Amino acid sequence: MPSILDLLRSRLSSLLPSELKPNELRHLLSPRRHPLLLCQRRATLIVNRVRLFAFLFAVLTPLWSLIDLMVFEPRLWAALAGFRMMACLAFTCLLLFYRPSGNLLDAYRAIAILFAIPTIFYIASHTLLGSYQLAQFSAVVGAGYAFLPFVLMAGLTIFPLTLVENLVLSSLLLLAQALAGYLSWATLNWPSFAGAFWLLILIAGVASLASMSQLAFMFALVRQAIRDPLTGVFSRGSGEEILRLQWDSAQRKDGPLALAFIDLDHFKSINDNHGHESGDQVLREAARRLVATLRGSDSLLRWGGEEFLLIMPETDMQQAHMALERIVGQGLGVRPDGAPLTASIGLAERRCDRIADCRDLLELADKRMYYAKMSGRNRLCATDPEAVQPPQAFVMRD
After folding, report:
1. Which residue ranges run through the membrane (predicted)?
2. How far is residue 211 CA from its own chain's centroid?
3. CA-based max dimension of the chain
4. Three-state DSSP class for residue 267
């Protein structure tokens, strides 16, 4: 009998894009272990939407002062107008000076600033209005200020956020609402406040579902765009983007970065003698075996044909050498005739080879892979062809 948890999971899965695999549902819960390119594109999208939100608030916030001018006494209007101009200035600064960097921490900072500005304005204006006796139409307009938390909570729906991220932001808005109620404790209408608070919680739930749905569609679309359709590993275009990101990170930290070109030996003969369908099957199996032995931080991409590129961040030459011996030594699969599938590998590392540009690192790994092929195949070359030490042959297993 399926458990209630399994039933709930299956129901939730049916509400999400069909392209999203069951084991990828965890990506909707927490931002941990998100693919690098997804993090970059999600961060860029979040900052761009923060700037759009800031633009709308920068324009609309001061315009409401015209309504305030018609219903509030001059002293109250002047104080509220001052609050609005400060909020408008803050939104304008956010719009003008915050630019997408592709960094998720910068995106978190942007969205935190965006929601902090109107939240502070709400608490300040709510406290100020509570100190005045409002009547008739002015009371109606003053009550409109209480809708700001609902606008902010609904605004979460435009961001592709995980459940954890939604809970953090929603909790902050709920705390702001509770603080506003505490500051007006003496005149608080408890039934009205409790109803508004419960409605805010309901909106938070709807906003979380909308944000997670956005993230699910974004994850599926990004995965389709960056993956090689045959092998499921990263495509060349997305791999170049990953390489640039990892190179920039390695340069900032002055850390190691290893690249390995992997070329499957005598692959053309498989297509010629057994057909392209058999060749595709060999490619898929080789990619599956390579991926199964990689670390979470490593990236495997299909560079073209039977060539793969393995990007290993935070990995020096010795560590990369040992990792490749372990990975390839476990076997890449078998050829259609039953013989073990082998590979020629060229390895280069940023610090060890004293490379100043990622393109040079790529070319060096490619050059060493070619030398491994010329030296007999089924081996790893981690030095220049002019070096005395010959490429090291692998001991392969099926």
Report:
1. 50-71, 77-98, 110-129, 135-159, 166-185, 197-222
2. 14
3. 93
4. helix
Task: Determine whether 306 is an active site residue.
Answer: yes
The C-alpha atoms of residue 259 and residue 317 are separated, in whole angstroms, by 9
Q: Which of 241, 277, 285, 306 is catalytic?
A: 306
Backbone dihedral region for residue 136 (phi beyond 0: left; psi -120 to 50: alpha; all else: beta):
left
Copy the structure tokens of residue 288.
């599956």
User: In the predicted model, what is the mean pLDDT of residues 286-312?
Assistant: 90
Q: In angstroms, rounded to a whole number, what is the distance separating the alpha carbons of residues 387 and 42?
A: 45
Instruction: Name the CATH topology of 236-393.
Output: Alpha-Beta Plaits (3.30.70)
Task: Give the list of residues 6+ apart from residue 268 with CB closer than 8 angstroms, or none.
Answer: 306
Domain ranges of the chain: 15-226, 236-393
Q: What global pTM score does this model have?
A: 0.73
pLDDT in tens, 315-370: 999 999 888 888 888 888 888 888 889 999 999 999 999 999 999 999 999 999 99
* Tens digits of residue pLDDT in 144-191: 777 888 888 998 999 999 999 999 999 988 888 888 777 766 555 667
Tally: H helices and E strands in the chain: 14, 6
Q: Which residues contact 142 (CB under 8 A, 6 or more apart)?
A: 72, 129, 132, 134
343-349 β-sheet, strand order: 299-304, 307-313, 257-264, 343-349, 379-381, 392-393
Residue found by looking up tokens 């101009």 in the block? 85
Identify the residue whose tokens are 């540009």: 357
